Inverse folding.
């Protein structure tokens, strides 16, 4: 599998004895600082020729940014990083055309690609391809640090894009650092809405239910819910089949508890419920909004 991920997307490329190997990273926020020096400690840990049982091959493994980085910071567009292959001895692999190595992908690759694969050094199936994965990991750690507020981006000179009017209470529902990283992911989610999400959004938008304004894919307390009504502090999630997985259910429960700590209620619907029982779903949302309104009124009432 060459490509994986939905919000943070990773695609590796290259062959062991080709000109280079590398990675394409998409879904990164603009302004993330990516100095070459930050990559070197992890690249050193990956290098061969330094430990017993590892390949004796030695490469510089200096990341070269070909796109998506300007003045040492990400531009918000896909980042292309490659690593040059300099220490290759392709002649050593000629015999592999007839005698594939046990425990390697030589035989499987030959059968799958009909002999057109680059067999030198294992080609695309070489551990050399992990350089791109390590580079992706370095940037992933930066994103996690950003979310933890330990590596903040510089403050912009003007208002934060998408933040809304400063006088709008509650619109900014995550910290500045969380907002920067999550808002980019949220934009991608809005572009790739499921059929059920698109259908329900038509019912929620323009204050159609209880005159309450909903936002879709709006960051809230470190999460990106499908829909949220900030004035009533109500989150709506539409779950696909994977939410039946035990591990995912555990994550969903933690998420529900976390949102509750910030005063948000949450209701869930399945894709099938939205697609097949839309009227009932809308009715449940309306009831939930009424209950939230009564709850907020009671909480704001002065003590007797």
């Amino acid at each position: 599998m060459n490509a994986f991920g939905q919000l943070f997307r990773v695609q590796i490329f290259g062959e062991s004895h080709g000109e280079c190997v590398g990675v394409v990273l998409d879904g990164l926020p603009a302004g993330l600082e990516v100095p070459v020096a930050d990559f070197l400690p992890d690249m050193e840990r990956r290098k061969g020729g330094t430990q017993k049982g590892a390949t004796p091959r030695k490469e510089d493994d200096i990341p070269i940014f070909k796109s998506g980085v300007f003045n040492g910071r990400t531009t918000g567009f896909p980042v292309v990083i490659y690593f040059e292959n300099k220490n290759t001895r392709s002649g050593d692999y000629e015999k592999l055309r007839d005698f594939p190595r046990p425990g390697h992908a030589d035989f499987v690759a030959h059968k799958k690609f009909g002999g057109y694969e680059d067999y030198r050094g294992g080609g695309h199936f070489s551990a050399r391809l992990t350089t791109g994965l390590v580079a992706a990991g370095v940037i992933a750690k930066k994103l996690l640090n950003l979310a933890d507020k330990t590596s903040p981006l510089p403050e912009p000179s003007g208002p934060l894009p998408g933040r809304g009017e400063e006088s709008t209470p509650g619109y900014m529902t995550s910290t500045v650092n969380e907002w920067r990283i999550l808002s980019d992911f949220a934009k991608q989610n809005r572009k790739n809405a499921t059929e059920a999400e698109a259908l329900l959004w038509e019912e929620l938008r323009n204050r159609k239910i209880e005159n309450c304004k909903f936002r879709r894919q709006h960051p809230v307390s470190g999460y990106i819910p499908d829909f949220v009504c900030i004035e009533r502090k109500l989150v709506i999630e539409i779950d696909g089949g994977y939410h039946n997985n035990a591990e995912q259910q555990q994550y969903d429960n933690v998420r529900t508890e976390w949102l509750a700590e910030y005063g948000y209620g949450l209701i869930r619907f399945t894709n099938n419920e939205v697609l097949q029982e839309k009227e009932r779903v809308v009715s449940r949302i309306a009831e939930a909004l009424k209950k939230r309104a009564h709850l907020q009124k009671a909480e704001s009432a002065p003590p007797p």
The chain has two domains: 3-147, 176-300. The longest helix spans residues 278-300. The mean pLDDT is 82. Residues 176-300 form a domain with the Endonuclease; Chain A fold (CATH 3.40.960.10).
